[in-house]
C-alpha cells in the first residue's frame, strides 16, 4: 500500500479508449463494476460496520497528485478495495443501526444508473420533457399512497417536487413563506420575521433560517418535555407567538416534525395548525424519516392534520429504498415557491415555458441544474409495488419491537421514550449501577453525569467492536443510545445479535464500573 | 401504448425477490441495465436530439396510480424505451450543442455507480472517513492542475468542497460573505448590504441573493458593452461601489464570471479584485463552464488574477466528464463558510469532530446529507489522466474553431462575439436579408426585430429537424444562435453536419423570407 508513484509520470502501457463513452468499453467496465458492487454486498457483513481508520489515514496511501496518464479500471478498483473500503462506514451493512437508515435497493440503484446514463439536466420542461412529467406523475402517485389531501397534488392544484434533502425543502418553503409575508409588510422588514420550532426540530431548520436571513434573535426554539413525549405543545406555541406579536414582530413560519431525529417524537399537526391559521403562519411538516411508513394505513394517523399545513416533505433516501439523495416535497401553493425562486434569463426562454402549459422545476428549488431523480423513485414504486413496500417497512417496525423487547426484558436497561416507528431509544438505567453499590444513589442520580458516562462508554465499546453501529442523543439530560432499524439487508438474526452485542458490552462496562466503584475511583 | 391497466391490481405471477439488495438479483438486474444503457449510447444518433413531444404527453401513457404488486424489470425497461426515451432531450447525443454540455463519461458513470452502491451519507468525517478524505485530496489534486494559488488548497490552509451546482456554491459563499460583513456592522443591517455582478452574470446569482435575504434594491447589475466583449468593467464597478457607499450602503460581494453563459465573456479578475480589495468585498469567481479548460496551460491566463478572489468554482459536470451533479468550489478561508453554515446538534457529536482534526463537510454546504461525489471525480482523473483530459478539451476547442470557420466563410452569417472557448455565437447577418431586397435597409436594421425573427425561425427550424440542437441568447438586442461543443461523443463529422444543417435551414428560411418580402408581408 502506498507504493504507487505518480510523481514522475511515465507513459503507461495502458491503451486509452478512443471515446470516453464508447459503448463497448462502457459495457465492459460497467459490468466489471456491477460485479464489484455485488461482491461488496455479498461480503458486507465481514467489514467493521463503522470504519476504524484514524483521521488522515488516506493521504499517505494515495499519490501526491493526479496521474498524468490514464490508469486502467482494474488498478482503480483494486485501490477502491484496499484504500477506500476500509475508510467507509457501511451504511448498507445489516448491522448498521446509526442515525437513520440510508436504505438502498436494486431498483433505486438501477434508477440512478438510468439517470446517470441519460445525464440530462432537467431544469425546465424543455430541457427533457420526460424528466419533468415523470416527476409530476410520480409525486402525485406517491402523494396518493400517503393519502395526502388532494390540495397537495397536481391533480388538486398543488404539486410535488424532488429536492435533494430536507434542508433544501425547508429552505425553499421558508423563502417562499418569507417573501409572501414580506410582500405584505415590505422587504425592509425582514428583521421582524419570526420562525418557530421545538427543541427537537432538526438542525437543518436553524441552518435554513440563517441562510434565508432570518435574524438569529427571531429563531424561536420552544422547549418540549417528557410529559408530551417531546412533542411541541400548541399552547406553548400560541403563547410564544402572542408574545412576539406584542413586541411588534411578525410570525412567519413553523417547522413541525413527524418523527424527530432524537427520538421520533411527533408534533400534533392538527392542533398546531389550529394555532398558526389565526396568524397566517406557513406550516411545513418535516417527516423526513417517518413519512415513509405513513403509506401503511395503520400509521397514517401520525400525519393527521397535515391538511392544515402548507407543505410536507419526506426523504425517500432515508427509509424508502431510493438511494441518496431524494427528498419528496409537496406544496399546496406552488405559485408561492415560484414567486420566490423563479428567474427567467433569456438563454433559458422557450415556447413551452412561454405557453405556461408546463412545469419548470428550476423555479421550485435552489439550483438551476437538476438530476433526473424521478427515475429512481418510479423504479422503486414499480419494482416493489405498494403492498411489498408496506410489508417491508412493517417488518422493520416488527424488528424494532423485537429489539425493544430483548432490551427491556434485561432489567439493567430502560426504554427511554415510547417507540413510535423503528427507532428504539434505550440506556443502562441508573438502578443497574446503584443496586447494592457503595455509591450513594443521590450521587449517581443527581445530575446524570455518572450514568451518562457509563452509557457513553457502552456506546463507544459497541461501535469499536465493529459488530454493530448505533449512535446517541441527549434527551432531558440523559445520554441515550439510538438503535434505528431500517437498513435494507437487516433481518431478525441481526437484531438478535445486536441485542446480544449490547448486553455483552454492558456486562463488561458494568463489571468494570463496579470494580472502579469498589476501588473508590468513580469519575 | 397506454394499454397497461393497474387500476384493479391483481396478484402478479412475478415472484418478488426476497431482499431488495440480494446480491445475485442485483447482479442480474444491474447487468441488464448496463446493456440497456450501452444500447442507448450505440443508438443515440438515431433519436431526435431535442425531444419532439408535446406538453402532457406522458400522463395518458402511464397508469393512474402506483402499482400494488411488483413488476419485473423487463417490463419497466420496455416502458423506459417506449415512454421515457421519446420524451428525453439527448444531452449525450453527439449532435447536442445547446446550453452548455453535460458531459458524461465511462469513468464518471462508474464513480456514480460506486457512490450509489456504497450509499453512504458523508455529512461529517465520522459518517464515512474515506468520503471526506478522498474529497479533500482530490480537490487539492484538481486545484493543483488548475494552478490555483496554494491559498485555495488544504495544503495552503484554504480548501475545496464538492457542491451540487454553481447555484449552491454561490449561495454558500454569499452567506459566508454576508455574515462576515454583518458580524462587523450588526445583523440588523442586512438591508444595507449590496452585491454586484454584470448583466452577463448567470441568473443563479440573482436567485442566491434573493434566497440569502439581500434586499432586491441592493442587487447591482452593471451594464456591459460589446466594446469590452461583454466583460465587466472595473471602472464601472468602482463608480457603482462609490455611489453605494455615499448612500450609506455596504458593498459585500462580487460575482465575477470566467465564461459567461450567453457568450463565454471573461471578466478581468485582476483589475476587478484591485477594486474590491479597497472595500473588503468578497469576490467569487464563477467559472462553471470555462474552468475546465483552464487545466490547459495555454488557457490558464483566463483565470489570471484569481489570487485576489475569495472563492472559485467550476462545474465538473459541465465540461469535465463527471456527470451531473458535481461543482468544485475552493475557498481561501474555510472558517468563513463554517461560521455561517455550521450546526452542531447533539445527535451528530462525535470524538473526531470534537478533536478538530477532521473536516466535516456538512459545515461547508447547505444540506446536511451529501453524496459521495468525490468518487466520480477521482475516477475521472485517474481513468483519463491530466494529459488526455487536456487533449479532449482542446479537441472541443478545435471543433468549435472548425464550426466557426464553416459558418464564417458563408457570407450570410456573422460571428457575433470573439470565440474564447468552445462556444460559437453566430447569426444570419442583416446584410444577408437586405442585399438586393425591396425592404429599405433602415427597416431591417432599425431595431433588429426583423433580423431577430429570421434568426429565431432559423433556430426553431434547426431544432425541429431533430438533427442538431442549439439554443440562443440575446446580446445587445441581437438574437444569437449558440453552438456549444463539448458533448463527449461529438467528433468532427458531427460538426461538419451541424454546419450543413444550419446552412440548409438558412437556405429555406431566407428563400421564404425573400418570398414574403416580395409579397409585401414582412412581419
TrEMBL record, chains A, B:
PROSITE patterns: DDC_GAD_HDC_YDC (PS00392)
UniProtKB keywords: Decarboxylase, Lyase, Pyridoxal phosphate
GO cellular component: cytoplasm
Annotated Pfam families: Pyridoxal_deC (PF00282)
Modified residues (N6-(pyridoxal phosphate)lysine): 318
GO biological process: amino acid metabolic process; carboxylic acid metabolic process
Listed cofactors: pyridoxal 5'-phosphate
CDD domains attached to this UniProt entry: DOPA_deC_like
Gene Ontology MF, one: carboxy-lyase activity
Protein family (similarity comment): Belongs to the group II decarboxylase family.
PANTHER family tied to this protein: GROUP II PYRIDOXAL-5-PHOSPHATE DECARBOXYLASE, TYROSINE DECARBOXYLASE
Protein name: Tyrosine decarboxylase
Organism from which the protein derives: Rhamnella rubrinervis
Lineage: Eukaryota, Viridiplantae, Streptophyta, Embryophyta, Tracheophyta
Amino acid at each position: 500500500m502506498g507504493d504507487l508513484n505518480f510523481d514522475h509520470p511515465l507513459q503507461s502501457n495502458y491503451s486509452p479508449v478512443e471515446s470516453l463513452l464508447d459503448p463497448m468499453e462502457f459495457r465492459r467496465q460497467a459490468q466489471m463494476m456491477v460485479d464489484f458492487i455485488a461482491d461488496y454486498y455479498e461480503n458486507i457483513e465481514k467489514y467493521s460496520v463503522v470504519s476504524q481508520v484514524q483521521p488522515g489515514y488516506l493521504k499517505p496511501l494515495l499519490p501526491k497528485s493526479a496521474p498524468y496518464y490514464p490508469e486502467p479500471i482494474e488498478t482503480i478498483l483494486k485501490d477502491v478495495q484496499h484504500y477506500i473500503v476500509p475508510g467507509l462506514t457501511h451504511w448498507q451493512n445489516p448491522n448498521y443501526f446509526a442515525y437513520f437508515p440510508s436504505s438502498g435497493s436494486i431498483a433505486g440503484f438501477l434508477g440512478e444508473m438510468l439517470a446517470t446514463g441519460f445525464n440530462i439536466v432537467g431544469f425546465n420542461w424543455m430541457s427533457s420533457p420526460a424528466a419533468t412529467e415523470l416527476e409530476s406523475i410520480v409525486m402525485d402517485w406517491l402523494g396518493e399512497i400517503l393519502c395526502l389531501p388532494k390540495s397537495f397534488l397536481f391533480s388538486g392544484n398543488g404539486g410535488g417536487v424532488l429536492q435533494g434533502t430536507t434542508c433544501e425543502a425547508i429552505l425553499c418553503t421558508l423563502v417562499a413563506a418569507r417573501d409572501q409575508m414580506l410582500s405584505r409588510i415590505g422587504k425592509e422588514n425582514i428583521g421582524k420575521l419570526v420562525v418557530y420550532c421545538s427543541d427537537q426540530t432538526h438542525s437543518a431548520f436553524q441552518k435554513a433560517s440563517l441562510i434565508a436571513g432570518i435574524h438569529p434573535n427571531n429563531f424561536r426554539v420552544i422547549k418540549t418535555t417528557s410529559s408530551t413525549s417531546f412533542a411541541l405543545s400548541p399552547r406553548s406555541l400560541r403563547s410564544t407567538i402572542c408574545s412576539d406579536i406584542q413586541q411588534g414582530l411578525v410570525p412567519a413560519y413553523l417547522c413541525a416534525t413527524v418523527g424527530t431525529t432524537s427520538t421520533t417524537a411527533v408534533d400534533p399537526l392538527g392542533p398546531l395548525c389550529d394555532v398558526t391559521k389565526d396568524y397566517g403562519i406557513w406550516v411545513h411538516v418535516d417527516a423526513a424519516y417517518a413519512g415513509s411508513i405513513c403509506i401503511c394505513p395503520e400509521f397514517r394517523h401520525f400525519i393527521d392534520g397535515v391538511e392544515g399545513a402548507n407543505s410536507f416533505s419526506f426523504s425517500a433516501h432515508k427509509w424508502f429504498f431510493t438511494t441518496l439523495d431524494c427528498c419528496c416535497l409537496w406544496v399546496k401553493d406552488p405559485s408561492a415557491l415560484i414567486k420566490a425562486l423563479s428567474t427567467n434569463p433569456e438563454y433559458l426562454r422557450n415556447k413551452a415555458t412561454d405557453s405556461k402549459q408546463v412545469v419548470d422545476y428550476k423555479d421550485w428549488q435552489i439550483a438551476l441544474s437538476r438530476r433526473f431523480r424521478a427515475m429512481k423513485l418510479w423504479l422503486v414504486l414499480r419494482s416493489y409495488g405498494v403492498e411489498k413496500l408496506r410489508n417491508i417497512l412493517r417488518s422493520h417496525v416488527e424488528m424494532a419491537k423485537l429489539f425493544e423487547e430483548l432490551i427491556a426484558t434485561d432489567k439493567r436497561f430502560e426504554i427511554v421514550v415510547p417507540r413510535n416507528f423503528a427507532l428504539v431509544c434505550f440506556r443502562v438505567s441508573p438502578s443497574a449501577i446503584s443496586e447494592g453499590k457503595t455509591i450513594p444513589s443521590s450521587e449517581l442520580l443527581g445530575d446524570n453525569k455518572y450514568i451518562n458516562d457509563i452509557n457513553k462508554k457502552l456506546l463507544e465499546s459497541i461501535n469499536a467492536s465493529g459488530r454493530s453501529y448505533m449512535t446517541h442523543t441527549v434527551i432531558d439530560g440523559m445520554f441515550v443510545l439510538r438503535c434505528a432499524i431500517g437498513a435494507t439487508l437487516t433481518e431478525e438474526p441481526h437484531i438478535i445479535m445486536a441485542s446480544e452485542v449490547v448486553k455483552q458490552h454492558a456486562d463488561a462496562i458494568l463489571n468494570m464500573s463496579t470494580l472502579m466503584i469498589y476501588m473508590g475511583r468513580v469519575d
